[in-house]
Design goal:
- The chain is an all-alpha fold.
- Helices cover 61% and strands 3% of the residues.
- It has a single domain, classed as Four Helix Bundle (Hemerythrin (Met), subunit A) (Up-down Bundle).
- A hairpin with a 5-residue loop joins β1 and β2.
- The longest helix is centred in the C-terminal third of the chain and has 22 residues.
- It is globular.
C-alpha cells in the first residue's frame, strides 16, 4: 500500500474506534496512559489525522532545508523530555483534554470532516512540508509518523476501554515497526539497544518513546 492509502485507511480505523459507544461511555475515566482520560487520549489519537491538513495548509515557502525521515522526527521532537513529568508532555496532555472537552460527538464530527477533506485532496508523497519545530519532511515521511501515532494510540484507546485492537494492514504494521525500531536506535546507547533486544529476559528493552 502507498503511504497515502495507508494513512487514509489507518485514519478511518482510528475514527471508527473513537466513535465507539464504549469509548463515549468512559470518556471521563482514566485511560491506560498516565495523565490521560479516555476522551483526552481519543483527542490525541485524532491529531494523527488533523495535523496533516494543518501542515499542508501552511505557507509552502517555509519548507526549506534538508528533509529528515520519520525516526529523526521522533528522536528530535522527543529529545530528553521525561514522558510523565516534563512540561512538553504535560502540554500534550492538556491539549488532548481541551480537544476532548466538547465531547465525543463533536470530536468525531471534526475528524470525519477532516478525513473527508484529505481524501478529496490530491496528496503528493514527495511534497516537502514544514512540521513541528520547523523540521522539514516529505509528506510521505510525515505520514509515516502519523501511522505510528494512529496505530499505537488506537491500541492504547482500545485497551483503555477493553475492546479488541482494530485490524490494521500488515504493511502498516511494518512501517510502524521499522519507524519505532529506528527511533529506539537513535535514542538509546548501542549497548542498551543490543542487549535489550537480544537478552530481554535479563536487560530492560530499549524505549523508543
Amino acid at each position: 500500500m502507498e503511504r497515502v492509502e495507508q494513512f487514509h485507511a489507518a485514519g478511518l480505523t482510528a475514527i471508527e474506534l473513537i466513535a465507539a459507544e464504549l469509548v463515549g461511555s468512559r470518556w471521563h475515566e482514566p485511560s491506560v496512559l498516565d495523565g490521560y482520560q479516555v476522551g483526552g487520549l481519543a483527542a490525541h489519537l485524532g491529531r494523527g489525522v488533523v495535523t496533516v491538513e494543518a501542515y499542508l495548509d501552511a505557507d509552502p515557502h517555509t519548507s526549506s532545508g534538508s528533509p529528515i525521515d520519520a525516526p529523526t522526527y521522533f528522536a528530535t521532537a522527543l529529545g530528553d523530555h521525561d514522558p510523565l513529568n516534563s512540561e512538553f508532555h504535560a502540554e500534550v496532555r492538556r491539549r488532548g483534554a481541551r480537544a476532548a472537552a466538547g465531547g465525543q460527538a463533536a470530536l468525531v464530527a471534526e475528524l470525519i470532516a477532516a478525513q473527508a477533506r484529505l481524501a478529496a485532496r490530491p496528496l503528493d508523497p514527495d511534497l516537502p512540508i514544514t512540521v513541528l519545530g520547523g523540521m522539514v519532511m516529505s509528506l510521505s515521511s510525515y505520514l509515516e509518523t502519523r501511522l505510528v501515532e494512529l496505530v499505537i494510540h488506537t491500541v492504547d484507546l482500545a485497551d483503555s476501554v477493553d475492546l479488541p485492537t482494530p485490524p490494521f494492514d500488515g504493511s502498516v504494521w511494518e512501517v510502524v515497526a521499522a519507524t519505532v525500531t529506528e527511533t529506539a536506535r537513535l535514542r538509546n546507547d548501542p549497548r542498551v539497544m543490543a542487549l535489550g533486544l537480544a537478552r530481554s529476559d535479563r536487560y530492560e528493552p530499549p524505549r523508543a518513546f
